[in-house]
Amino acid sequence: MFIAGITLFTRAAIEGGVPEETAYALSDGYIQTVEECTSKSSIEKLSQKAALRFAQEVQKSGMQHYSREIEAAVKYIHLHLHVPVTLEETAEAAGISASYLSRLFKKETGMLFVDYIQKERIEAACNMLTYSDYTAAQISEYLCFSTQSYFIKIFRKYTGTTPAKYKKYKVQDWK
Hints:
Blueprint (H helix, E strand, L loop, with lengths): L1 H14 L4 H15 L5 H23 L5 H12 L7 H8 L3 H12 L3 H19 L4 H7 L5 H12 L3 H12 L1
């Protein structure tokens, strides 16, 4: 029943605007964690915690209200975090020119296009570090960072710590 509930939470979160990678990472983490539960009450508590966390992710993703073009660009970015993303491809997906996307993106999000991609990749990395058994090297490669040292540098820029320290403390919090 717990796994069925998590599946429903995951689907609802994706429909609510949560990036698929984030929703699936949360799902995998909760499913792995439930295996450690030893009582019905601990499973119920974990289920409540999961429902709240999925709801928070939906709320967080719904806070931004962008134009149709920027919504399309953001969706394109989220779907392509694991492959190289260019301004030109994203502009084409949004149905506008690259130069207009660049200006509009900065105006609406307050961030440069490349900075937004980096931030989203680091958020995905944080979820993967917290809710999966992937190593920093595997995550770095999956999220298209050119080298592991560059990944660590960008990770530290956005989180203030290294992936290894982040994983150590987040996994402790998670459990």
